[in-house]
Structure formats: structure tokens, C-alpha cells
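Late entry, evening session. Most of the bench is empty. Finally got around to the prediction I had been postponing all week. Sequence below, unchanged from the version circulated by S.P.
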Amino acid sequence: MAFNLGKSKRILQSLKSKISVVGLRENRFRSCWFRYDCASSMAPLAPNCRNPDAVSIGAATQFVTRRFESTTAEKRVDSLSDVEDDKLLDFPGGKVAFTSEMRFIPESPMERAHCYRVLDDRGLLNTSNFAQVDKEVSVKMYASMLTLQVMDTIFYEAQRQGRISFYVTSIGEEAINVASAAALSIDDIVFPQYREPGVLLWRGFTLREFANQCFGNKADYGKGRQMPIHYGSRKHNYVTVASTVATQIPHAVGAAYSLKMDRKDACTVTYFGDGGSSTDDSRASLSLFSPYHFWGDFHAALNFAAVMEAPVIFICRNNGWAISTPVSDQFRSDGVVVRGGAYGVRGLRVDGNDALAMYTTVRAAREMAITEHRPILIEALTYRAGHHSTSDDSSRYRPVSEIEWWKMARDPVSRLRRWIESNGWWGDEAESVLRSSVRKEVLEAIQAAERVEKPPITEIFTDVYDTPPSNLCEQEKLLRETIKRHPQDYPPDVPAL
């Protein structure tokens, strides 16, 4: 705020003559605008700064008293001579030490954050610092990861055959899916992105249910309104997938805060990619490197979670690519995990292709989130060994040799298999039986889902309003009339009534 001090003097003299303010000097008038020390600058106006009503002067000077009223400031003035206070600034959020050395905080640390790992690429243990997993859980984890891999392969082929319109695989990221799910409770609410079907698989979602959703038939819980792979299940505490990038992150924080208020022994878990961490809270932001609008709230969500101490686990699948945008073009920070510290969120970087490391990390994160009422950020380093989706050809922006190397050398499924084999819990015969049975079950699920009737057109207009408004009724009528006039342009297996 800029002032003409000469003009201010004349105003002051006028106020003096009208309200008879005694002892108010010009130097004190100036100080009341540039100092926040209520006790020193405002003392002539009132003996007690904490009681503005005691000032028997006009409203023009009373507002100054109220603006800078502070009970804390008065205490600070009394302790100005304290040597300890002269070295520390008792600022909101905690004390800050003063220094005579001007040193800028570096843009990145000298050493990158380490990545927690239990199994090496050969499936051998390189530490004893991990949560022990028994045979039953270990074999189930491997079986689920293998099932997800086989399911992805067959559904991808079904899309290429024109049997479904779209598909997204989780190839290369099976450990993040399944191992994290194994470390959670069924009461924990999952807010997925779109590459986490393994979480649903672990919780009991059947291959038939996956197929029903992808084919959008009457048995689909979404009644055919969603694109394929946009799964959701209230029974399994798995919130329906949304296409908009990262919008699930703040939703998970809000739900976590609700669980905390209700004193539930549970947390929320949200998954997102490295691209999702590049989103902001703008309602009109557009990625410079992608045709997709980014409507997420990663940064606001982390801050909200930290301030409200919400029991939420953020799991970032840093697979190196946001569609065709490499992480090197997204941010200059040391990945995603370091961002947590800026918001007061505890974090850990983990090898996302190591099932035992993922299981141990998420299990520990859940314990901290619930017992300590705090958010946890996990950055799982992995690699998207498949295309972004069936609408993408990743060989156009990354070398095929790189993809093949990750598939062969760092495959999370093979790594876990070697470990359970070394324990005597698995063998070639069990492998052959499982692969054969899963492939048969997936094919049967697809064939059955194809034969199920599609939901009627009327389902497009239901489940939102108790009584549909007139404009919605008009749209439904117009759609029916259009289908009658141009039946050749609409699928014959979708009932129009």
C-alpha cells in the first residue's frame, strides 16, 4: 500500500482537531502502518490493545487497532530481550532458526532417493528386512499375477478382433496390483486409476465379471454406460474407474477423512501414474504433451491429506511414461516421492517389480496410516511393458529393444515365481495346470459375456434423478425417434425400448 505522507500529515492534523487525540505524534502515525507490533505502535490509542472497545476515538482509527490486534504480539514484545528468541523465529508451524549465511535450497538432492528392494532380478533375497509371507499368501499372489497376465493377453486380442471397443493392460505392473492388494484389508476403500484390475482380482472379482464389464452387457454393474476396463464394485470396496486423469486422488483423501471421523479401522488407497502426479487443481489445464485434459488434483490432495491427517495411501505407479511423455519431460524433481516432503507427507520409493517389497511397503504404510492418522506416499518404480492402451503404439516413441529388455529381465511375475520355486512351493507341473485353466476360464467368460443381452436404451437415463427432468425426457424421446429413422446406424443387439 503506497501513501502520500504529506497528505497523511494534513489528515492527521484534521483528525487531531476533531477528536482531540492527545499525544499522537507523526512518527507513531507512520509506524502503525509499517509495523505489526501492536503494543508499541498502537499504545497511545488504547491502554489495552486486546480490547478495541476501550478506544474512545472515531471508526477511522479503530479499524487500525482491530487490523493489527494480536494477543501473541504483546507477549513477543515482552521477550525481545531473550537471547534464545533472538536466535529463533517462533513462526506458525514451528520454530525456525536464523542464520547469517545466505544459502539457497538446492533444486534437487545430491543423491537420489533410494529404492527399497527385497528380491533381485533373479528372484533371490538380498535382505531379511521384509514382512514374512507364508506359502498360502505367496502362491495366491503368484497365481493372481499370472491370471492377470493371461487375462490381459486374451482381452487385448479380443479388442484387436473387434469384439470389444477398448482395452488397457497391466503388463509389467502386476506386482504393484496384486502385492499391494494382498497387504490391504477388504475394508480399505480403493480409488483406482485404470491399471489396477489385479486389486479387484485379489478381492474376488471373477473373470466373468471382468468380461461382463468389458462387453457392457446387462450383467455389467455399470449397465453398459462405461468404457471397457472401467471396473467398479461396491461389494469389493473398489470405486468405479474414471477416465479423467487423477480425479480419484482428492476423492480418496475425502473418504479417508470420513473414515477417520467415524473411527474406522481402515484407510483409503489411491493409485495413479507419474502423469497423474503432474496434474494440478485447475479446471481448464491442458497437458502440453498429450491430447487429454488433466483434471486431477494431485498437489491439493496431498496438502489436504497432510493438514487433515487423513489415513490415505497414495501409490504412484511411476512406469516412466505418461502415454508418450517420458518422466524427463514431466518434471525435474527426483521422481514423485520427494514431493511428499514438501507437503509434510511421509514417503518411500520401492521397486514396483518386486512383489515382496511392494507387500512389505504397503503393509507398513497401512499400519502407519491407521494408527498414526497420517497420509503415506509410495512411489513404485516399474515399467509399462505394454502399450498405453489399444489406441496407442508405443514403438513410435520408445525403442522396441527397451520394451523387450524389461519384459525379459525385469518381469515381476517371473521374479516371484523363481522365489516361490526356491522355497519348494511351485513347479513346472503346477505352472502348466494354472496357465491352462486360466486361459480356458477367460475364453469361456468372454464367450458367455458376448451372448448376454445389452442393457436397454432406457438405462442411459436412469439412476441420476428420482423424477427425470423435462429436458432429459425430451432427449430420450429424440434418441428413440432417431433410432427408428436410422436403425442401420445403431447396434441391433441394444434394445430400443
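Two things to note before I forget:
Strands lie at 88-91, 94-97, 189-191, 268-273, 312-318, 321-322, 325-326, 346-351, 376-381.
The longest strand covers residues 312-318.
Will write this up properly tomorrow.
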